[in-house]
Amino acid sequence: MTDALYHRDSYLKEFNAVVTEAVGNGIVLDCTAFYPGGGGQPYDTGVLRAGGAEMKVTRVSRKDGKLVHEVEGPPPSAGTTVAGILDWDRRYKLMRTHTALHILCGVVWRDFGALVTGGDMQPLQARMDFELENMSATFAKEMEERVNREVAAAHPVVADILPRDEAFKNPDLIRTKINLLPPGIQEVRVVDIQGLDLQADGGTHVANTREVGRIRVVGHESKGRINKRLRIQVE
Fold it and tell me: Which long-range contacts (CB under 8 A, 24 or more apart) does 175-180 make?
């Protein structure tokens, strides 16, 4: 089983690992800092170096319970030691964007008690849908002001692993309309924007809300009677 280094240190840019097996045009490593995607956050990209060769990592995904790193060119064989280097500029932008979404979610939950019905992100831009009846330009502007106050408040962002039973003693831990956490998972990773938001989450985040930068609400839409969308951009 691959040791998910990104869960312990979101700021790890480079690492060494050993290939445990080849899967199609990809490889499985004994450990990795490449995030495989999930929860709306895209997978990481970068390169793997083995000996004098360098392979571009084009995709990282979960397949049959394995984290598979798809590479350009022939994959190295099992037992090969590789050095992994993330596309850090892309990853850090995704970290800032992901934390921005949690700030938005935390403010909407705190102030309106609205659940999340959907979301998606790319580097420095994202959208989130909420179970809200009303949406307007005035509301969107007010949300922009509220979330940026929380950015400026410099909340620490801390991740932890809790036993499932302990985690679910907090009824507000799951903010999505549908609980997407598979029942077989017995440990729950939680991300705590201290003083604002606590959620079950498997993605990567910055360590302090100030790192996010300014959040702009650049669009708002109605997606149904009680389904409203906010689009954000991180500067």
Answer: 175/105, 175/109, 175/115, 175/116, 175/199, 176/115, 176/116, 176/117, 177/115, 177/116, 177/117, 177/131, 180/39
